[in-house]
Structures are given as C-alpha cells and as structure tokens.
Design a protein that fits this description.
The chain is built from one helix and two strands.
Length: 80
C-alpha cells in the first residue's frame, strides 16, 4: 500500500534573506483511509494540526504587520 498524505494547512517560512515565503503547503501522512477519505481519528488530528498552524500563521502575519507599521512610523518621524 502506498503512503497517503493530507494537506492540512498553508504556512509561511522565512527565506535565507529574512523575507517571508508565504503559502507553503503542510502535509501529514495518513493511513487506513476509509471510503469517506479519512478515519475519525485522522480527521480529529487534521483539525488539531490545522488549528495550531492557523494560530501560528495569524501570529506571524500580525507580527509582520506590526513590524511594518513601526517601520512606517519611524520613517514619518524622520521626515518631520
């Protein structure tokens, strides 16, 4: 039987230069797939991983917006 993977989230990673590489898919390996696609246990795991990744992704985006806003405020203060 071949291995089966399920996409559970999209994440943002950092490039070597510190910039963000957005929308990188995150997969988990699943087994014993039923005719409905996944078992109840696997579905629960997918939801848990998705929830954790979404919280982390939201935090990364919020942090990036705050960083950019601080940079804009600095530039405005320097121009005044």
């Amino acid at each position: 039987m071949s291995e089966i993977f399920q996409k559970v989230a999209y994440i943002g990673l950092r490039n070597e230069d510190g910039s963000y590489l957005m929308n990188v898919p995150l997969y988990i390996k699943v087994s014993e797939v039923t005719k409905n696609g996944v078992t109840k246990m696997q579905e629960d795991l997918i939801h848990k991983v998705s929830e954790i990744m979404m919280k982390q992704y939201e935090k990364q985006i919020k942090d990036e917006f705050e960083r950019r806003k601080k940079g804009e405020e600095k530039n405005e203060n320097l121009q005044s």
